[in-house]
Amino acid sequence: MNPASYRVVKLAPGFDLGAFDCGEPSYNEWLTKDARRAVDSGSAAVHLLIETPTEEDDQPTGDRVVGYFAICPTLIVRDDAPKQYRRGLLRSAPGWLLAKLALDQSLRGNPGHQWGRQLLREALLTIMAAAELGGGQAIIVDPDNAGLVAWHAANGFVSTGRPDLRMYMKVATARRYLQ
After folding, report:
1. Domain boundaries along the sequence of the chain
2. How far is CA 125 from CA 34, 95, 120, in A?
């Protein structure tokens, strides 16, 4: 098996998005059909996790998209946040939405690398850099199912407890997590 290197880059023309498969058709479809439009319209920033296999035996290999995340600015209403997060939040606070985060099936189940957590860390680092420039008090994520709620909770997000599954993390919490 060829070892590979990995890097996170902003979405740009030239990447084959169609080969990505996280096992969730709606996430695969969003990447192939909507990600470029989101970037072009300015509604979201999309970042790709790229796998670059090393060349062995003079056989050409190419980059492969194995993960992605999308972030965008949002407005957070204090009364919608979990009670323990309301203190210190403005009535209407600037924040960030982690709109999408998906990992190719081929990288799942690797306890040594924990690719999902690494991709989340990259997303949080990107949000922190943006918050340094433009502010923001909280990060929101909207998990699509209860299994993702548990995963995000294990990674520091707090549920509102409402049926919409929305979860929050203060920017200050993310900053401490990343240090």
Report:
1. 4-178
2. 23, 14, 9
Alpha-carbon distance of 28 to 121, in angstroms, equals 21
Q: Tens place of pLDDT for every residue, the chain, 179 residues? A: 457 899 999 999 889 999 999 999 999 999 999 999 999 999 999 999 999 987 664 455 688 999 999 999 999 998 888 888 888 888 888 999 999 999 999 888 776 678 999 999 999 999 999 999 988 999 999 988 888 899 999 999 998 877 788 999 999 889 888 87
Q: Which pTM value belongs to this model? A: 0.89
Supply the Cα-derived Rg of the chain in whole angstroms. Answer: 17
Per DSSP (E only), the strands in 92-166 are 92-103, 138-141, 158-159
Q: Yes or no: is domain 4-178 CATH 3.40.50.150?
A: no
